[in-house]
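>> received
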Amino acid sequence: MVAEQIIVVALGGNAILRKGDKGYPEEMWRNVYRAVEPIVDLYLEGYGVVVTHGNGPQVGNILEWFERAKDVIPPLTMDIATAMSQGWIGYMLQQAIGNAMVKRGIKRKVITILNQVLVNPLDPAFKEPEKPVGPWYQCEHADELARERGWVFKRDPRGGCRRVVPSPEPLDNLEAEAIKELVSRGYVVIASGGGGIPVYDSGNAWIRGIEAVVDKDLASSLLAIKLEASRFIILTDVEYVYIDYGKATAKPIKRIKAYEALKLLEAGIFPRGSMEPKVRASATFTIKTHRQSIIGSLDKASEVFKEESGTIIEP
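>> returned
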């Protein structure tokens, strides 16, 4: 199957772990299989499909494993943790999508790319960490961990506190050309996992990893732009983008122009580290490509793909 149009689908963390899950493999497999069925529907409709995914809880767990084992095993770096999470989550998505293809009577054509994303080592984010990773903690416990381990925590708009790490702006996707080639050959490609492995140019195009976690939505938008995607879709744990989210005055946004979305961002309407990067990523894609983006619920993915649900951001 060779597609003329590419859709980039960015899966939120709830594709792997849902709030209240403990992180057992059977929970993750259940969530993954639920997430991939609408994606295979898109593929069967003739679209080229690129799937990106978050890794916040997973990379946070990996970093905590490093911390707990540091007296026995030398701890590794955040870029290596992201690479590990790409393999972990990519494997699960790849197997589930492939099995869903076989169930539909088509050849298994899905592959995961170990994907590097270029960042600037002088990005201000390295001085002001704000990207949430790992599990939610009671804020009293988070204060203890901050004192014990030197971690930085911030309150999450959805409740509790989460560890935050540097999240520099993604500048380039180093495997975009390979991804486009694989899509042209009929593969569903899983790429830019966890925002991509953060690397920087240390001189003469010699790249090295760096201690950070790139925002998944911004990196997905960058990839969608480079692939000249026809649509960019973010699937998360809410049905719409809201004004006054979590308040009695909450109001869903069903359609909005990209420039209007940017004005709301400038006004600080959306929480940083939560909906803010999703709106910015979507509006950026739409402004740069003059093509539509959508933010919607993973549980209503089929409706989102048909434009029957979700916040539609228009040129």
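>> The longest helix spans residues 78-103.
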